[in-house]
Amino acid sequence: MKFILISIVMISLLVVAFGAPFSKVVTANNSKELKKELEGGNDNLYIVNFYMPGDKHEDVKKDLEEKIGGNSRYKDLVNYIEINAARTYQYKDVLTDVGIYNKASNQYPYVLVSKKGDGYLFRGKDIGEGVLGKITNVIEGRVDYSSIRY
Fold first, then answer.
1. Are 12 and 45 spatial neighbours (Cβ–Cβ below 8 Å)?
2. In the record, which residues are listed under signal peptide (predicted)?
3. Which CATH class is domain 24-149?
């Protein structure tokens, strides 16, 4: 009995220690649901990972988890969303609004950091560093004119 109790406690501690770094993972099944989240009048902060299957988006996700999800300052603020951009029939409106609908699959992933419809779109090497460098501006509503607005 004692062994079972100790095992349960150890497993619980491992789950807490190595659980999902983003405390809020959101699902959006189409453009309408995603727009409702992003533009819904709430004060939430979103990181949206637009990916194509096979584009190494898992590496980007891991980098974001380490730099943002693992950062106690941001961990509980971020709502993380993954969008499979190959499903254009589901996400065409949002992909068009963000300006990536016609982008070649080898240019993915793209990461959008957004709050109240304002934010930044990142692509390329070191996305996590880019997000980390601009996330405070997004949180504080200090997005410059070169930002993405949809």
1. no
2. 1-19
3. alpha beta
